Amino acid sequence: MAASVVPIAYQNNTSSVPDWLNKGDNAWQLISATLVGMQSVPGLVILYGSIVKKKWAVNSAFMALYAFAAVLICWVTWAYKMSFGDRLLPFWGKAGPALGQKFLIRQARLPETTQLYHNGTEETATIAPFYPMASMVYFQFVFAAITVILLAGSLLGRMNIKAWMLFVPLWLTFSYTVGAFSLWGGGFLFHWGVMDYSGGYVIHLSSGIAGFTAAYWVGPRSTKDRERFPPNNVLLMLAGAGLLWMGWAGFNGGDPYTANIDSSMAVLNTNICAATSLLVWTCLDVIFFNKPSVIGAVQGMITGLVCITPGAGLVQGWAAIIMGILSGSIPWFTMMVVHKRSKLLQKVDDTLAVFHTHAVAGFLGGLTTGIFAEPELCALFLAVTNSRGGVYGGSGGVQVLKQIVGAGFITGWNVVITTIICLAIKLVMPLRMSEEQLLIGDDAVHGEEAYALWGDGEKYDSTKHGWYSDDTTHNKVASGVTQMV
């Protein structure tokens, strides 16, 4: 009797393993997506909650948590197909749900390069990863989510949480989907051959520019917070940073859409560049300030991870080291020197310096990818043939120009659309918290505090946010526990 169960169970499962499904590729894609998801939740939730002043720990962490959930619902309802669906405009896809079973269980497909070239030939045929659409939808969701969460880093410590709740779906819909479709989903930059292996432009440049723009419209933190804004827990900040670093294996390793040699190269290059950048940033801190800063090291780590992202699977290891040296020094210079001398940069209160760590580093990564992209590695990943960096001659010099134009489009679109979104929300509600909320912090905004220590936490309202709906229920349960003891 027991033996007969085996073939029956096997027969029932064969329909879930079609001939085209590669279990290894599918497993790697789901693992990569989960690693990227963990960069946001709990990675950036922990990082944001600990790198800010104690009174903003809850609010900062919650901005990240809310964005992760909100983006997912918007993504499967309409935004995925705007990013990777049928073409509506040269830079935008048609909106539609990604929820139906027939859609999600079929084989995933990537954009076709249907553009005809001067010799009348079609560039490539359709690429079909060996896993279902459900894996692709989930993988691309975690990238969309982390983009919005990174943007939030510019707005911590003063944005009205209700305005943020409106901002997230609006920015995802009208900004992120445009960049994603243009560069990844079959849009005009994709066909033109602009290189963005894993989001240097789509994710980091866009979040840095949009965050800086939104910070301008939201306004600055309180004067007291701008003058002194110490982390409330440096060790916990390092834990969040560590999750961010390790999660980048999925961030860059998952973008070949298969477990191949390109994904291995991408993971190794990612770690090489991040480590180099961290060391360079730390050395510069020691040389000019005589002390190695832990926060500075984290910033150097992030700029390295960001810089390698657009070229992780396209450059060789020696180029990753050069990119790490540049990402550990140029953003350091823009943050420590240029920022302090620029009236515009001084005017805008970018809480976590997202402009420097993501916009500057993202553009730097895209530019250096155009210089160092190796032809054989490009052929493993890119749809446009004969792609190469400037140092390899041929069409490489044109590639640098393409990278600059691609960055210009992403920058311009984000400045304009983010401005429109902020002004539209401002018609409905304030973008900035009230002065009372800015003074008190989490207790005023959420009725909750991160650390109920040293006399804090007295204002916590358990009838609204606690385990019990009212004091009567609380007293009855407490009484029962006492009697049991």
From TrEMBL:
InterPro entries: Ammonium/urea_transptr, Ammonium_transpt, Ammonium_transpt_CS, NH4_transpt_AmtB-like_dom. Keywords: Ammonia transport, Membrane, Transmembrane, Transmembrane helix, Transport. Residues 27-451 form the Ammonium transporter AmtB-like domain. One of its GO terms (molecular function) is ammonium channel activity. Belongs to the ammonia transporter channel (TC 1.A.11.2) family. This is Ammonium transporter. It comes from Nelumbo nucifera (Sacred lotus). It is a multi-pass membrane protein. Coiled coil: none annotated. It is found in: Cell membrane; Membrane. The lineage of its organism: Eukaryota, Viridiplantae, Streptophyta, Embryophyta, Tracheophyta. It comes from the Eukaryota. The chain crosses the membrane at residues 27-49, 61-80, 137-156, 163-189, 201-219, 231-251, 263-287, 294-312, 318-338, 359-384, 404-425.
